[in-house]
Specification:
elongated, Immunoglobulin-like, four-stranded antiparallel beta sheet, mainly beta
Amino acid sequence: MSSSHCEVYPPTSPVFADGVKVYRCTGMAGTINDSDADILYGVYLVIQSSLGHRIETDQRDIVASPGSSSSGPYYADIPAADLPSGSDVTFTCQIGLTAGFAGTDLKTSQLTIE
């Protein structure tokens, strides 16, 4: 029987991505396809802030060939410039697998914006 696992990691501090300071949500997905055929699936990743920001990424038509397969990392970023310095913000991050596999993970973190 084919199976999957996914995990999401909310931001713990700002990082720089392409020279821009961001609060980043990272998601990973792993699949085991023990059938004799490819399985198509998708991955979505969402980061939300308690201040009303929401960014969603969506990767479709990922192919899990027979045997073990993994995908990621996936990223969703909120630019630090969009968040008021000194404010306490709760970030909620969620990853999910769709189509040929199913799975979801949801985690939160609370940070003071630098």
